Structure prediction request, 873 residues.
Amino acid sequence: MSETINRRILEKIEEMECSREIKQFLKEILLIELRIFEGGSIRYSDEYSKAIKKYAVNYKEV
Amino acid sequence: MKIEYIKLKNFRQYVDETINFLSEDENRNFIVIVAPNGAGKTNLVNAITWCLYGKELHQLKEKYLGLPLINTTVLKNMKPGTTVNVEVEMMMVDENNGKIFLKRTQGFRKPEGQSGQGKNDNDVIPAMDQPLTMLRLNPGQKDWILVQDPSYIVNRLIPQSIEEYFFFDCERLDKYFEEAAGEIRDAVFKISQLQLLENAIVHLDRKKESLFKEELGNKRRDAKDIEDRVRGLTEQLDEMKKIKDREEKALANLEMEKEEAEQEERKYSKLLESHENINVQELEKRRNSVNAELETDKKKLRELEKERLNMLVKIMPTMLIKTAIDKTSGFIAKKMDAGEIPPDFSEKFIEKILETGRCICGADISNSDEAKKKLEALIKGHDKLSNWSNELLNLYHDLEIVSKEIDHFKEKEVIYDDQIREIEERIRRNTITVNEISDKLDKSSIEQIRDWNNKLQEWRKIKDKLSEDIGWKKAQIDQIRAQISKLEKLRSDAITTHEKYKELKHYDAFCEECLRIAKKVKDEIMRDVKNEIEKKTKEQFLELIWKEKTYTDVKIDDNYKISVIHESGMEAIGTLSAGERQVLALSFMAALNSVSGFDAPIIIDTPLGRISREPKINIAKNLPNYLKGKQVTLLVTEEEYTHEVREKLRPSVAKEYKIEFKEQEVGGLAKVVEIR
Amino acid sequence: MSEDREEPQIIYIDRSDKATYDKLVEKGGPLEGMEYKYIFLLAMALGYINNIKTESIERIPGGLFRTSYLNTYEKAIIKAIAIAEEGSLDALLDKRKIYSLAEQYATGGIKILQNIAFDKFGKDLYKKLLDELKR
Prediction:
């Protein structure tokens, strides 16, 4: 088992037809989920807020 | 991830055995351990699960049920009162040559006076604690790091909930088809880490829902509401500003008019002052002078009245509540008279005497119960208010001063009244003087003088009215300015909210799209994984099965329920023989492992147990292909590991071991011997 | 003493009274330029003497002024009201209650002050206040 995200998921995300920011965002929240799964005491709400603010700023709505 | 070696000490039939798994040749990824039934194959798998999870997860043979973990011979030979450890040690290595060392230990104590034949659990006391030690060596590093929480790491490497998909017992593979297929779907979900993606989707959805509430809270409104509010406030502001401009223009006009009126007034005054008639000159000069004095006096009067009013406003509360002040002072005075405040002593002082046992006079009271009782009674009877007598005394003092202020006010009031009266009197007199002069000039026999005087009076009236209007207008403008300021703040807040709202709408759209993509990723991966597993299972099954033409298809539905289609088109899974089911399960497991992306070593217990000759050879030939790149350990009986099977597997086998088992009175002893 | 009974940091009035306070002290107003605390104390005293208090106040956000603006004498008269009302020096134990009472009386009394100050007829404000004292 990898201690990072399963390559299949990362590759599938890359394949998706969507903006760069969405792909990077999805990868980042997966890492957050991995840390939570490992028992890290993380508040997902705060982490997600940070990630949304980081990537949404350059995202262009279709 | 591969196993480098396993060391077992005193674990069931394994007293001191080491099994090495690695070879230099990367293409040789199979390890074969041959043993008759009951020799210890399952216990070997259990040793691994015990090391990893602290539990033997695979079915114990009947003869071991009820026996403690510790080897029975070792137990029998233990002296009473001593402790012996059971240990299982594993070294794992990953694709980058990073290493993980694991060792679990459990102590077993033979109680005093216990002969303990090891026939049952009561002969020995296992330690409650069976700690797992884990050390890591990261790739390229020289130093081993102690892992603080080994259980977490273990569960990341090979989660306990899905270990049976990597350490599987072929004889129990039936359950994969009989029990809930949904469990397999869940396992696939976990193995491919889709659980993480699922969690991310749930969390993202929740986050999206709460975006507006979190940031805007109660101020949350529809975009339209906010826009309307901003627009409304802007309109109001513009309107107010227009009004302000209008009023300021009006004010400017009034001031201009007053300026004009003053000029006219001055003009006529100058004319009168410079009239050839000296009387008229003097009268006008006098009038001007008195008027100037009047203005000064009126201004002074207003100031004095304001000061007097302010003074009254400040002292009035005291005067109004005089009775309350007197009452309060009375309460405090009573306490002072009663000697309660300031207190003769402080409680702390008495407490200190009791603590030290020495009176203020130096006498030793530590042995005097009577003295102590008296002191304690003093503390009890002490009014708690006296403890803060300082506050009371200050209050008393302040109220005294406050009361004196009333007298001061009365004195000052007299002074103000006198001053005000004086000025009022002067104003009255000066007003009379001005009127008299105006009268005289009014009654002048010279028409020109009357005319000028009239005009002067008129202009003065106009000027005074205008002054009043100007004052009023200025106050109005100030009020409008205050309103504008308030509206500007409200609008600024509304705009900020609006901007915030727009930003949140953008985040919302972003999250919406991310959710859509995430769900698509999840669905496609599940579909891809399922299809691949289905394809590989079918390929492998049909390749391995000996009835080549009987079965034409293998299907796996979304819930991972497996179907095998007979050439007649009928569902055949219910009619598969035990051996055929085993082949199917093996094919499925191989497919699952190769597709999942999960990198764990695979251990298969009794893979060829119920399979006849031909398919056995087939499996031996093809299994290495199906599980390429994985470390596979086969635990086989001699009946399974025929010469033909051995030959077919040979190119892939790194090591071969034999378990030599010797029955004991209770339990047994197993030795692991390398054959190759 | 528990925190609950300590002197509060801010003095509050009812939010509906803020406009009156402003009208009194604004430019051209009858008490132009006076600090809020004086208006408050006067309103409080008028409320006390006329026995009008409003038990529950809808507090104005942010309050009217900080308690630290009151000097020791002004605090003394606030305390005197509470002690007289309770009839005992024990009233001093609960500082929060003392100021709460002051706020209640002020809320009652501001309306009296409003009537006096904005009544366009009759004498000037100074004389009207003196009359009030004589009553």
Remarks:
- The radius of gyration of chain B is 53 Å.
- The first strand of chain B starts at residue 2 and ends at 11.
- The longest helix of chain B spans residues 447-544.
- Chain B has a mean pLDDT of 87.
